């Protein structure tokens, strides 16, 4: 393995908890990094779930202040969680897929060490992605603030009726909408919930924000792509058991007249991909665009 580049001296390792058999892969990565002369730390959640007290643990803020990059071993959910926390610190992220889909954790576990060696040696493709920030205002005061890598979702509760929303963009009235909710998505999130609700795919380098209604009452309410300079304000006109979710991981309960202000975050995240990585290859693999009907009559 080549000598440690000056740009990567201390590396954080973030591991999805409660994953059967992951300890062996973690030990392989740790041995590989220590042999290469890197200092390695766990995030506190990883340290709590793995019985490896010899590895120091740091909070997300400590990682942001002390580490040169972070390796995430898990699925896209694990990546989403740490990416939101590290975005203000500009810590680049490397994803090893231990999950199912892996849009953001794109290095397969099989053969991961040679790929890591090349990335840490500087042979990689760096890609920056935007985030959204949202503020929930009640009577003019912020009651919740959150970041989203994928999306901010306003949605009704499972047992309640449709929610009625008013949407303004850049101080211009856009529409009143009756629906099950509204998804406001980054280009990264366009392959997630927004896609399942009928939204378009956006290349991650595009400067856009996608708004996708969830089961709208009026079929003329269609998805729309806005400039990423837009500020979107969603006001709750009517409804029960309404929440706003940031990447489906943090939420606030909403009341009528609450307003959610959403805009592009000043922070961005950087993914380090293997050399030769292609967004189109990822789409083709994850969305099964390269599959053909079988010749034996089975679907």
TrEMBL record:
One GO BP = NADP+ biosynthetic process
Q: Which GO terms describe its cellular component?
A: cytoplasm
The yes or no answer to whether the keyword ATP-binding is present is yes
Q: Which Pfam families match?
A: NAD_kinase (PF01513), NAD_kinase_C (PF20143)
Protein location: Cytoplasm
The text of the family note is: Belongs to the NAD kinase family.
Q: What is this protein called?
A: NAD kinase
Q: What is the lineage of its organism?
A: Bacteria, Pseudomonadati, Pseudomonadota, Betaproteobacteria, Burkholderiales
């Amino acid at each position: 393995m080549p000598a440690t580049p000056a740009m990567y001296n201390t590396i954080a390792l973030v591991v999805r908890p409660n994953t059967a058999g992951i300890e062996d892969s973690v030990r392989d990565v740790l041995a590989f990094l220590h042999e290469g002369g890197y200092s390695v730390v766990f995030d506190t959640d990883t340290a709590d779930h793995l019985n490896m007290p010899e590895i120091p643990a740091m909070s997300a803020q400590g990682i942001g202040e002390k580490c040169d990059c972070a390796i995430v071993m898990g699925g896209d959910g694990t990546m989403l969680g740490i990416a939101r926390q590290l975005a203000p610190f500009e810590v680049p992220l490397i994803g090893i897929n231990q999950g199912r889909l892996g849009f953001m954790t794109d290095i397969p576990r099989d053969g991961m060490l040679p790929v890591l060696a090349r990335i840490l040696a500087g042979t990689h493709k760096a890609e920056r992605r935007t985030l959204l920030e949202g503020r929930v205002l009640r009577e003019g005061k912020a009651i919740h603030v959150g970041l989203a890598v994928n999306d901010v979702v306003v949605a009704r509760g499972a047992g309640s009726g449709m929610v009625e929303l008013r949407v303004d963009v850049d101080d211009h009235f856009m529409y009143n909408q009756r629906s099950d909710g509204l998804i406001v998505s980054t280009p990264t999130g366009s392959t997630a919930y927004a896609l399942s609700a009928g939204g378009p795919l956006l290349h991650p380098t595009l400067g856009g924000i996608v708004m996708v209604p969830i089961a709208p009452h009026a079929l003329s309410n269609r998805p729309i792509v806005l400039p990423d300079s837009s500020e979107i304000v969603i006001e709750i006109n009517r409804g029960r058991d309404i929440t706003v979710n940031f990447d489906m991981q943090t939420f606030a309960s909403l009341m009528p007249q609450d307003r959610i202000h959403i805009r592009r975050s000043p922070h961005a995240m950087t993914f380090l991909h293997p050399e030769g990585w292609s967004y189109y290859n990822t789409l083709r693999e994850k969305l099964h665009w390269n599959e053909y009907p079988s010749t034996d009559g089975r679907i």
